[in-house]
């Protein structure tokens, strides 16, 4: 794992801080589309084709030397494509190779909305596992620092399913990220679940790295689920179909045993062994956490 101590300095010049009117009363013109037919606002990264039994390690050559990843902007197997549906661009991520699509620009203080829908294809190593993807935010550094050598240091808004039902809005620490979440432990197994009235639990830094959303919400009749991420000054709200399911506070990463703020960065969409579609990807600036969500951090 790389030393992330200089991240805040190394990314400071790349950050585009988004700061404007707060959420209530914002006009539709405040939204900026992030998706077009040419993926002009995004770059790509692909890791390795999965090798059974790799247990999170990169594949090696005959001499046991780690093979390099596929890398940036090669789009092997057309993992990332845009199709037109009803005159609108729809992003297809096949999932065949682990990796990510990530914004060219870094963002701070924003409201992100998008819709997601599952495809039918699944790939190794998750042929017999729930479909999985994710929105990774406050993403900094280079991809490849996580278990699967595919993503940047970041926080994850989980896009997944459990027992063939949607499991949207869960939280994962990616690489050496950390955060504070009000969570309680499941009575039947050792799993954290977001609860606004629970005590604060610190995630990451050797502790638990996963917290389940407070509730599950099914797709609309057309199969699409609306997701929304409110991300302001190290505090974030995960919404699914308009419902708050997670509040993440004190976003940070750990370097040399010390927590450092992780409040700005690029946005990644994961390719993780399942076909998934995204559309209506929109972002708008926020000056502060809207009052209706600020209560979750008191």
UniProtKB/TrEMBL annotation:
Q: Name one Pfam family in it.
A: 3keto-disac_hyd
* Taxonomic superkingdom: Bacteria
Q: Does the keyword 4Fe-4S apply?
A: no
In this chain the 3-keto-alpha-glucoside-1,2-lyase/3-keto-2-hydroxy-glucal hydratase domain maps to: 30-284
Membrane-crossing residues?
none
Q: Which Gene3D superfamilies match?
A: Exo-inulinase, domain 1 (2.60.120.560)
UniProt KW keywords? Signal
Question: Which segment of the chain is annotated as a signal peptide?
Answer: 1-21
Q: What is this protein called?
A: DUF1080 domain-containing protein
What organism does the record attribute this protein to? Hymenobacter bucti
């Amino acid at each position: 794992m790389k030393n992330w101590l200089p991240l805040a300095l190394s990314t400071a010049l790349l950050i585009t801080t988004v700061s404007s009117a707060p959420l209530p009363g914002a006009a539709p013109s405040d939204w900026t589309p992030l998706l077009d037919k040419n993926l002009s606002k995004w770059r790509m990264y692909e890791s390795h084709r999965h090798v059974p039994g790799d247990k999170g390690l990169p594949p090696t050559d005959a001499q046991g030397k780690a093979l390099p990843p596929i890398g940036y902007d090669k789009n092997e197997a057309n993992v990332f494509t845009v199709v037109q549906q009803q005159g609108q661009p729809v992003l297809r991520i096949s999932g065949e190779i682990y990796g990510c699509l990530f914004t060219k620009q870094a963002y701070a203080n924003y409201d992100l909305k998008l819709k997601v829908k599952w495809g039918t294809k699944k790939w190794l190593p998750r042929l017999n596992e729930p479909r999985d993807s994710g929105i990774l935010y406050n993403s900094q550094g280079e991809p490849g620092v996580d278990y699967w050598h595919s993503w940047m240091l970041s926080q994850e808004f989980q896009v997944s399913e459990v027992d063939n039902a949607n499991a949207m809005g869960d939280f994962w620490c990616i690489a050496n990220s950390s955060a504070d979440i009000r969570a309680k432990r499941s009575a039947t197994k050792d799993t954290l679940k977001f609860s606004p009235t629970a005590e604060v639990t610190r995630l990451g830094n050797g502790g638990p790295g996963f917290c389940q959303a407070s509730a599950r919400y099914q797709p609309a009749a057309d199969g699409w689920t609306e997701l929304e991420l409110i991300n302001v000054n190290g505090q974030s709200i995960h919404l699914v179909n308009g419902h708050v399911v997670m509040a993440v506070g004190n976003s940070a990463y750990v370097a040399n045993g010390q927590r450092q703020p992780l409040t700005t960065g690029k946005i990644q969409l994961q390719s993780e062994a399942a076909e998934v579609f995204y559309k209506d990807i929109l972002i708008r600036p926020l000056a502060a956490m809207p009052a209706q969500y600020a209560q979750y951090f008191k």
